[in-house]
Amino acid sequence: MYPIGTPGQPWGEEEKKQWLAMQSIKRSYAEEVLSQLDNLPAYFSVIQYGALPYDESRYPLFALVPRQPLENAPWVLITGGVHGYETSGVQGALLFAREFSQAYTDKVNIIVVPCVSPWGYETINRWDPLALDPNRSFYPDSPAPESKILMDFIGAMPQQFLLHIDLHETTDTDNSEFRPALAARDAIEQKTWNIPDGFYLVADEVAPHLPLQQAIIAEVKKYTHIAPTDENGLIIGSEVPSEGVICYDKRKLFLCGGFNGAQYCSTTEVYPDSPTATPEICNRAQVAAVEGALRFLLG
């Protein structure tokens, strides 16, 4: 039983305050993320697109954008840290920008938003301080500042994105902490499943573009193992149309990967709790996913 709330009753404001009081700062956004923004290729201009209202000075929001965009070249959006606790999404986005982007910046226009949820990064949390999941909050007038500020920023841009790749992790704490918290908050029983040991992708159910997903999987295989199916042939309760690929209706679920209408999209899911995983492997797998997608688009 989750320690907050009454079984069968959704949380009110008092329970949400109790939950927030349980959270604590465990690492530094300034030291681990913002410090890396000074060491990027000249291709990128670092711009602040907003700040979280919980503490605007502590949680400024930054994007890396082309200093001189290429004419008639496709646009690509890379997002990380929508769930702040998913470390390699943030660090993988920064690693790609810092060390691997140069191979593509003469062919595509790349925007990187490395840490959408810095409060979640510091507290190692899936939710924001309002007990909202930013990755279920990408809809108009969203109450989640992380989601709304990013949507406003991207929505104000005139260009259409060809690709959006959203970098995530699936961790053991999804079962031990976050799903029980969700069940308690909403008073809705949550299905349980085994956390898959390995990397997988979430494609868009409406337009899965399996050749894109397969190209990503092929590249990621060079750095980490792909999640097998369970005894029912599923991954986290979902059918698997191609190795290591499941599908969600991203717009219906208000996921980050579906908010901007990119023609191609994919959400990565790295498994950092594998006995064979290291932070370096996880970060490199995220980079491999981005590179696999870009190579597919560029033919």
Automatic annotation (TrEMBL):
One of the Pfam families matching this protein, by short name: AstE_AspA_cat
The keyword Zinc is assigned to this record: yes
Domain Peptidase M14 intervals: 25-299
Cofactor: Zn(2+)
GO biological process terms held by the UniProt record: proteolysis
Superkingdom to which the source organism belongs: Bacteria
Key words of the record: Hydrolase, Metal-binding, Zinc
Keyword Hydrolase set for record: yes
Family affiliation: Belongs to the peptidase M14 family.
Protein name per UniProt: Peptidase
Annotated organism of origin: Alteromonas lipolytica
Organism placement in taxonomy: Bacteria, Pseudomonadati, Pseudomonadota, Gammaproteobacteria, Alteromonadales
